[in-house]
Amino acid sequence: MAEDVNYPPFQLGKSRYDQGTFSGRLRHYLDIIDPRTLFVTEVRLKESVKLLEDYKHGTLPPGVSNTQLWEAQKIKQAIIHPDTQEKILMPFRMSGYIPFGTPIVVGLLLPNQTLASTVFWQWLNQSHNACVNYANRNATKPTPVSKFIQGYLGAVTSAVSIAVGLNVLIQKANTFSPSTRLLIQRFVPFPAVVFTQTVLHNGVIFICKTVESSANICNVVLMRHSELAEGIDVLDANGNAVGSSKIAAKRALMETALTRVVLPMPILVLPPLIMSFLEKLPLLQTQRSLVLPVHSLVCLAAFGLALPLAISLFPQMSEVEVSKLEPEIAMATTGRTVVYNKGL
């Protein structure tokens, strides 16, 4: 069929693209984060799930194309959690991360922040991150609500503390000119979200205490730390669970945490640099009401660039040799490798 030219033969549970390459993972995740899936109706979702079930049981009606099957799987993967088989709430899906997260990024990067506004935007940011991390976790083991609350409080406290501390230090840095202080203050969200750093300007050293464990890493680890204690299921080539591995859980959290380090870099570094240039243009100098809309568009573009690049660092279903896991895992399967859901 002509419509199937760009689609390979359908494989249930597999990606259309090679997950062993960065470009393949990038194309795969561009499907997953496609915001158009936010508008899929309940009827369309049920039709997609049924089509995949029919394929699985060999009862597919005649005339169904590869295109239809791949599109059905795209819809399911964007909306349904692979472990729980339950719908992920719209703001916490990866396809909703950019539309719902961009207003928060704009708020984080607003200049002339007060203490109250800094606390508010950092709280909102880490609250959204916590829910995204929890909603896209490996859910092969149940997670008590108490663990969610502990992780949430830890992540929010760390981010707000770093941001408030840096804001106070910047306000006291009288050696900086007002314009330099404003530029540095715009970068406060980045260390609060990722790590604090040393800022050099005209020979003046502004020292921000280095914090190895960033707020985003804390968020991932604290929201999912029960996986480290209980392990996660690892699957053989047929998709059957062969055991629970704490080593695989550690790898999953490390891979996810690395994506959270990369994710904020373009989002929180590029907009301040671009806006510091754009705000000098005659148009924005005379039409100050355009600054916030332009700022929002710049943030949206940076977010749209950063998310697929960051999550494409690793495949969602990661593969690991059984020899690198616990001995009981190697004894439970004859395969050389197993796979696990890293989460997003």
Automatic annotation (TrEMBL):
GO-annotated molecular function: citrate transmembrane transporter activity; monoatomic ion transmembrane transporter activity
GO cellular component entries: mitochondrial inner membrane
Tagged with keyword Cell division: no
Membrane-related topology note: Multi-pass membrane protein
Compartments in which it is found: Mitochondrion membrane
Keywords assigned by UniProt, alphabetized: Amino-acid transport, Membrane, Mitochondrion, Transmembrane, Transmembrane helix, Transport
Chief subcellular location: mitochondrion
Biological process terms in GO annotation: amino acid transport; mitochondrial transmembrane transport
Entry's transmembrane regions: 151-170, 257-278, 290-314
Keyword Transport belongs to the record: yes
Domain of life: Eukaryota
PANTHER family associated with the record: SIDEROFLEXIN (PTHR11153), SIDEROFLEXIN-5 (PTHR11153:SF17)
UniProt record similarity statement: Belongs to the sideroflexin family.
Stated name of the protein: Sideroflexin 5b
Species of the source: Erpetoichthys calabaricus
Gene from which the chain derives: SFXN5
